[in-house]
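hey m, so remember when u said the tokens were messed up on ur end? i reran from scratch. heres the input so u can diff it against urs
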Amino acid sequence: MDWKAVDERLIRRGELILDLESLGNHEKELEEMNKGRPGPRYKLANSYIQLLAVVRYLFQMPYRQLEGYTRALHRLVPQLPQADYSGIRKRIQRLNVDPYRHLSESTDPVAIALDSTGVKVDKAGGWVERKHGKKKRYVKLHFAVRVDTHEVVSMEVTTDDVHDSKEASGLLEGAEKRVRVAEFIGDGAYDSEEVYGVLERRGVGAVIKPRGNARSDTGSLSRSVSVGLIRELGYGTWAESVGYGVGVGRWRRLTHRLSGCSGRAPWAGALGVSRWSWPVRWLSTICWSTCRWGWGLSE
């Protein structure tokens, strides 16, 4: 093994590659953005705002410090103008982020695993319950993850009162727009006739952990087989034979990092995203501003 090459590869993971060549068309991009625009004209191109967004969420940089960062860039590259922090904030919040843009293109059949996690949207904590008797609410993120590459292929956002099984059909439909799904892996939350029916109609194999009180004489054939195998051979042997532990069991740490909480962690490890990852922080902010009106928390 070439250890020098290994060391270099690991070192480069810690580098922030600031490619200013992507901003070389700043003036031309501004010209296109301002063409036919009434009112004030843009001074910052979208590509520059995307760069600032990455810097902000990568280093947890407040907006005022981000304004100082634009001043330093302006001294380095005079073509890039300085910006005030309030304008940067508004532009970043209006960015059209596509989390599926970098999915690997492949026509091979793949296995996906589904689960969900809760993201806190209010720091008031138990004080709200003690003072006002209201239950603390949170945003629920539902994910479908490609098992072999650990890429998120589908995602839904709901309130905390939506059961995981209700979102299975939508997640599967979204995943099939991007990859060819051959196998569905899920925990006991997806052990329902509705989910099995959707999988059978779409011709997708089911690897779903049956509930503890599951019966083998009801439901779909694949579910009955799983229940029978668990009773005869035990859960460990069943999980190893169908690959359930590979798809779900090793993911239990990720939800702790995604949600930043110490509660139940349904799946982990798949995305390799840090606890305060910027996509999750961005999602929780957007979801909170969207959902709070429906919960009556804006009063």
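this time it looks ok to me. The first strand starts at residue 109 and ends at 120. if urs says something different then somethings off w ur setup not the seq
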